[in-house]
Amino acid sequence: MSISKVLDELDIEKILREIETVSNDDIIKILNKEQIDEHEFLQLLSQEGANNLEHMAQNSRINSLKHFGKAITLYTPMYISNYCVNRCLYCSFNCNNSIKRNKLTLDEIREEAEEVSKTGIKHILLLTGESEVKTSVEYIKDAVKILREYFQSVVLEVYPMKTHQYKELVDAGIDGVTIYQETYDREIYKNVHIKGPKRDYLYRLDTPERACIAGVRTINIGALLGLDDWRVEIYKVGLHAKYLSEKFPEVEVGISLPRIKEISSTENVPYKYNEITDREFVQIFSALKLFLPHCSINISTRESKSMRENLIPIGVNKMSAGVSTEVGGHKINKNSEKQFKISDESSVEDVIKMIERVGYQPVLKDWMLL
Ligand code: SF4
């Protein structure tokens, strides 16, 4: 069975009705449970859930301490190319946007790696736009080999690949893959992905599974929050993470919660996004933690410094630091377009201090590939 079958069997109208009929007593009962099921997870995403937010956040904190302790793993994203063949309305790298396109040479990747490694960071998230022609598997493989000389863990966030391609990259030294479905709603998916191979909803949906079959140690999924009704979207994210955790118990499943950000675009974007408030964001975060206590949650610099700090005690497991979203943004400086504007420009050193101030332990290396 594939995750698409699980999602196709959902009755969205029924889900929305259920969310509306949850009572305060239901929520209190759920919050007194050790482990909750998917129906109870859905109920936590309701307005009654929001009315019990403090209680929910407190339970999330206890759950996270039990499973992860006070450790927060730090990583830095490294963009090595912004060439892209897709036209996603929410992204400034989209192929219809007239921006300066760049791709780092292998020597430049080494320079960037040297610069980032000076900060003490040991975990790298390697990113490109989606263009198999400009950034071939061979090129990415060469980049990974260089990065592995400087970092203990390299996670890929590039275009969806076939299983044998992921296998080659696992052999080259990656230990994880990040791939967001962006939205699990097929209709919205079609409307925001106007052109390019990314229009293939099912191929993208099955990507985490192909990466797991290829032997990655970690898989990170998520949706771009703001494209669909967040309650329905997060319910589906939770089901997807549960599906992967059960099918691949040896793989660490992580969830990211990117809130849509303003982009610079040279084309008209005719799409109206749903805004997610900070309270709703905390509700999403806490409900996921209670439903999937073994899954890690990653908070990027799309969130502000104060929001990131406030989320730490509720159960953040991974956090980016010293972030640039442009190609060669750590050293090479090609003056290229940022993928999106970040909200926390703190250096690695500042993020370490912030985590320690809250009483948690920043972890630069939690994993070593032999
Ligand atoms: S989201 Fe990814 S695939 Fe879409 S335009 Fe941006 S870089 Fe390309």
From TrEMBL:
One of its GO terms (molecular function) is 2-iminoacetate synthase activity. The keyword Lyase applies. Residues 70-300 form the Radical SAM core domain. It is an enzyme of class 4 (lyase). Keywords: 4Fe-4S, Iron, Iron-sulfur, Lyase, Metal-binding, S-adenosyl-L-methionine. Its cofactor is [4Fe-4S] cluster. InterPro entries: Aldolase_TIM, BATS_dom, rSAM, rSAM_sf, ThiH, ThiH/NoCL/HydG-like. The keyword NAD does not apply. Its EC number is 4.1.99.19. CDD domains: Radical_SAM. This is 2-iminoacetate synthase ThiH.
